[in-house]
Amino acid sequence: MGGLAAVVLKFMVHFMEELSRNISAHLPYHFIYVFLPALGILATVAYLHLINRDKIQKGIGNILVNIKRNRSNILFNNVYSHLISSSLTVGFGGSSGLEAPIVCTGAAIGSNTGRFFKLSAYEKTVLLAAGTSAGIAAVFNSPIAGVLFSLELLIGEITIPTFIPLLIASATGVVVSKTLYSGQLFHLVTEGWVMQALPFYILLGVLCGLVSVYISTVAGKLEKGLFVNQNRYVRAVAGGLLLGVLILIFPPLFGEGYHDLQQALNGNIEAIKDESLLSQYLNHPLALLGFIALLVFMKIIAAGITIGSGGNGGTFAPTMFTGAFLGLFIAYGCNLTGLIHLNTSNFIAVGMAGALSGVLHAPLTAIFLIAEITGGYVLFIPLMIVSAISYIISRHFNPHNMYWHDLVHERNIHPDHDYDMLSSITIDSVINRNFTAVSKELSIRDFYKVISLSPANIFPVLGADKRIDGVVLVDEIRRQLFTDDFADHTVAEIMITPPAIIKYHEPVDAVMKQFDRLDVWQLPVEQDGRFIGFVSKSALLAQYREAFIAQHKQADLFAH
């Protein structure tokens, strides 16, 4: 199903892109490029508003939220809404990629398949990742990269029980794609790399890391929305026209940009300027070098405008495009000096991997994706060097990739927290309701009798309305409790105010944070203002351990 979705999306987008290019070829100066993106974004916004009713969940970040907080449940309309909306956006020239939409589509297919068969949250997560792997593998005809993408970005760990289903799904997606819509995304002709180019690959790695920080920052800001004070249709038209003007000057910004990228890989570098409004001024090699440099910075701005004005797409393809033209800039610029000759195709391919590694924080995915889609397996060493350097520099500035950054800082969702297992535990299951309540007026002499009849070491002090006034911690006051002059005192003098009171409907992950923050082992629980019992950290940890063991038994394909 993931493979079929990818085939449908590729066919629709490529059909509309070819139609757009044919129309522009018959008009002077390709001025139709000014209006086509606005038409596509406007159609996307209208579909999402009037037909989809804004039920779509855009972006890979929302998939991560569903995995962490929603037991991997994704709304059914995401199975088809991304195919329609992204094909309208990108097909008419929107400067974004199809990878995020196909990831969202594949994830929705996997999630809803799991819901149909009433599977557990863990099994739905595996199916969600399998759908994603199938989609990515089918789009790029790259089965290994499809598996690694899900493992590095969605699941975050590599285990055999998850690895095997992803392998099967990814391979199946590629078979379906090759059967129905064959063709390599890029064709790279190379004889390998040379040692003399190694310092320049290191330079490319450093620049890819810095450019990755630029991509994450700019995309993050622009995608949050343009012309925010205007209604959605005004935003769509204004953003689309602004994008159209940019495309008129920089034609490679049209759509995914893969058409011009292939021209550059073929060595036909002059072709990237041919349709530009400024083409007559770009005949000098230095002017063309400046044009390439501008493309490095403009693609992600164009992508941000596309998504921020209401279009549907991702920054995956724009990131590859940016890295490719950064590699071209270094190789072409060095070749102009005449001091050394660098293989421009090699640097284009390796630059794509460097940018992806830095932006996604997924070096394995970047290395194998570029090796698979370009056929550049002889470039493994440069791919490894550039991807590693870019990743290290990007991680220095951004501890989290661009998808996790907003989730961590704005929604307090962290990649290393297992919210799913915590959400399987309810407060009700760990409340100790076996308690002995005392009143503030009770004398210590009478309190001795209460202690002698109870094994507890914590006693709630309740008022007439069952509201908790305080607690008595026997371990804390044991020594003074049994002194001769203390028997005539009252409980009010030895009770303490609890550091926090847990509400009955409070999520378990919030309760665990309370325990860690306060460094305590027991806290009282209230329901509708009335004390109902205590919850202990040890009971929560025991339940978490049981949930952890149960999930791993479920994950083991051969544990029966």
UniProtKB/TrEMBL annotation:
It is found in: Membrane. PROSITE patterns: CBS (PS51371). Residues 495-551 form the CBS domain. The keyword Protein transport does not apply. The chain crosses the membrane at residues 30-50, 125-151, 163-181, 193-216, 236-254, 286-308, 320-340, 347-371, 377-394. It is a multi-pass membrane protein. Pfam families: CBS (PF00571), Voltage_CLC (PF00654). SUPFAM superfamilies: CBS-domain pair, Clc chloride channel. InterPro entries: CBS_dom, CBS_dom_sf, Cl-channel_core, ClC, ClC-type_chloride_channel. Keywords: CBS domain, Chloride, Chloride channel, Ion channel, Ion transport, Membrane, Transmembrane, Transmembrane helix, Transport. Gene3D superfamilies: CBS-domain, Clc chloride channel. Its main location: membrane. CDD domains: Voltage_gated_ClC (cd00400). It comes from the Bacteria. This is Chloride channel protein. It comes from Mucilaginibacter defluvii.
